[in-house]
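[step 3/7] fold_predict: job queued, chain A
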Amino acid sequence: MSNQSPATDIVTDARTLGTSKILILGIQHLFAMFGATVLVPAITGLNVSTTLFFAGIGTLLFHLVTGRKVPAFLGSSFAFLGAYGLVTASGQDIPLTYSSIGVAVAGLVYLALALLFKFFGAKRVMRYFPPIVTGPVIICIGMSLAGSAINNCNTNWLVAIVAIGVVVACNIWGKGMIKIIPILLAVITSYLFAMIVDPSARALVAQKVSEAEWIGLPVIWENTGLSIFNKDLDWSMLITAIITIAPISLATIVEHIGDMCAISSTVDKNFVADPGLHRTLLGDGLATTLAALFGAPANTTYGENTGVLALSKVYDPMVVRLAAVFAVVLSFCPKFAAIIVAMPAATMGGVSLVLYGMISSVGVRNVVENQVDFTKSRNVLIAAMIMGLAIGVAYSGAIQIPIGSITISLSGMAVGALVGILMNAILPGKDYEFGVNELGDTSVCFGSRAE
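[step 4/7] structure written:
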């Protein structure tokens, strides 16, 4: 401990605080990640208990791979919301099984990038993923999801407005932990409001909770369509899901790098150098692939928990690992999961409407804070093609490519991202250099971030 006042003490070894304070800090990290992590399965139809279990396991795996040095929590990724509920060009739903396989492959992309970072370094690799590509891709991710949020809001706009109002109020006027957990507070407030004004919502919650057991296994083994095991796979659907979903990792990898820079800045340790981006990407990718294989959402490093680090001044990664253990323990309570499953659609709609808009706003921020020069024709053309294809194809229907007996469907996001990467690689005038602009490098974060 330093000789500073208690309000500014920085704790790097939480064991000096005592057991009771350590437990409280672990619970605080649990609450910080909680609202966002359980919202993803609530929106997508994935299992809440499985999500919590693999958020905890994924975080512990990440800490193991990174030598227990980085105080990061891995929760559900909002960027991959677009990976679920996809349809083919013919209008056929892509089952969650195939979406999960696509997300698992996206996690493997992290591993490939980790190797490139190891052998070539961050500056050389990031030259092919500049803000002029990642910014428009992120903008389109949010825009493509907004319609589903509006559909949920339409079930009860009054409940949805309460959720939106709480998120806005917490972000603008909230202090301390209030500012760190606006999603959780919005869900709780809107949920309770719905229980008061909507008798059918009360009845649904009572039914779901009464039917659920107190204790149960979080991992789904039976043939339910969530886990990829014991399935007869349709290869056309499988390849379509992989090609559609894997490019989303372009945005989440950049988010991961931004989060590592933000955590480094908060803790005042250079985690980009030690343990290195190759290790943090490896840990994140393995956690995502493992989660997706068992029907849980993709994992990503959470800005919410970075905010808790800044708030508490306790930087010991052990406290974050304790939160991961709490998440695993909580995943064995199906009755708790039932409460989440019974969440009113309008509550999800209000919160997700803000989140989807924030995703697009993050893309704008990525472009602005990296000072992308739109007086250059190459930058205008790259952004135009990414957004034109991503949104245009989404409206007109996926592009179908028959290859023998297999038909591959390419979504707007997949086409836009791939075209953007290719155009940036081919066109002259690349001027982005990772590591020069710290503000720009940390400008990609789909969750909350402490100011």
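[step 5/7] annotate
The chain is about 65% helix and 5% strand.
The beta strands are 74-76, 299-301, 399-403, 406-410.
exit 0
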